[in-house]
Design brief:
It is built from eight helices and 13 strands. It is α+β, with helices and mostly antiparallel strands. The mean pLDDT is 94.
Length: 296
């Protein structure tokens, strides 16, 4: 069975066919309904560092996004690593043995890189839609957002096949935007501890407790396909639980944005997640300046 937008070129698609603009009128930013959606997201971000916009993507559009992921899944870079929450592999003698810097857990997952998404894909069309960037900026209470310029990490899909998990970690970006496209039948739950660290406090004691199985402050989200999530992953420890061995995979689109134009990701993290780097990453690393002092 084909959907209404399966064969429609992206430059002919109306936003209302992709996004439930009746509930979330991101095409009408002056409307009361738009402000209500923004206010609800702000409340979640202020209180627990996360906003979930339920059923944001319409079913037909979600099916097309899902098909695009399956078509590009052969380009996924899968890796299994044992890392600490900062994506480091090696023990640090400057810290005690029982410490987040020296606690290593399995990360097994994959990413479809940004250069797999042609301009003709609906995934890229959604990611680059100016109405979405404006809505997200309003939710985050910042003046403006721009699509992350990183050619590999700007637009990706996170793949968790049966048996895989994305262990506890922090993001290098202050926030992330995801759309769950296909959910696992068992496992694959998004869990996080909001604001477990700040610019002035790494929060090591609480982090270590969570790494050892503690549940203090842990939130588990009941996400469904089509839900969009706005999440402050720089300050909130988070993970996706292991997908059961007999489950279907978990597929999620990841839309990355930045407040400045032209931002490129970290060299080491790019190599870890995508198995390669481009000249743009090398050039950016040489000019890198970190705006906070938190551990990466």
């Amino acid at each position: 069975m084909t959907n209404a937008i399966d064969s429609v070129p992206v430059d002919e698609i109306d936003l209302s066919v992709v996004v439930d603009t009746d509930r979330y009128p991101i095409d009408r930013p002056d409307s009361a309904e738009y402000q209500a959606a923004v206010d609800a997201a702000r409340q979640g971000l202020r209180s627990v560092g996360c906003a979930v916009i339920k059923d944001f993507v319409r079913p037909d559009a979600l099916a097309r996004l899902g098909a695009e992921i399956w078509e590009r899944k052969p380009t996924t870079h899968f890796s299994t690593q044992v890392i600490n929450p900062y994506f480091h592999f090696n023990a640090n003698p400057d810290y005690p043995e029982r410490h987040p810097m020296n606690t290593f857990l399995e990360r097994s997952s994959g990413f479809i890189p940004g250069d797999s998404w042609e301009d003709t894909t609906l995934m890229r069309w959604v990611f680059e839609h100016p109405g979405l960037a404006r809505f997200l900026a309003d939710c985050l209470e910042i003046p403006e957002l721009h699509p992350y310029a990183d050619p590999l990490a700007g637009l990706t899909a996170n793949i968790l096949d049966p048996g895989q998990q994305f262990t506890w970690h922090f993001d290098t970006n202050e926030f992330a935007v995801t759309v769950l496209v296909e959910e696992a039948e068992e496992g694959g739950l998004f869990e996080y501890v909001p604001n477990i660290r700040s610019d002035g406090d790494e929060g090591f004691d609480h982090i270590q407790d969570v790494l050892e199985g503690g549940r203090t402050g842990v939130h588990t989200l009941d996400l469904r396909p089509g839900d969009m999530q706005i999440f402050r992953g720089r300050y909130s420890l988070h993970a996706v639980s292991r997908v059961a061995a007999d489950s279907r995979p978990r597929h999620a689109a990841i839309f990355a944005y930045t407040e400045q134009v032209g931002v490129i990701g970290r060299l080491e993290r790019t190599q870890q997640l995508f198995g390669r780097v481009l000249q743009a990453h090398i050039d950016a690393e040489e000019a890198r300046v970190r705006s906070d002092g938190l551990t990466d």
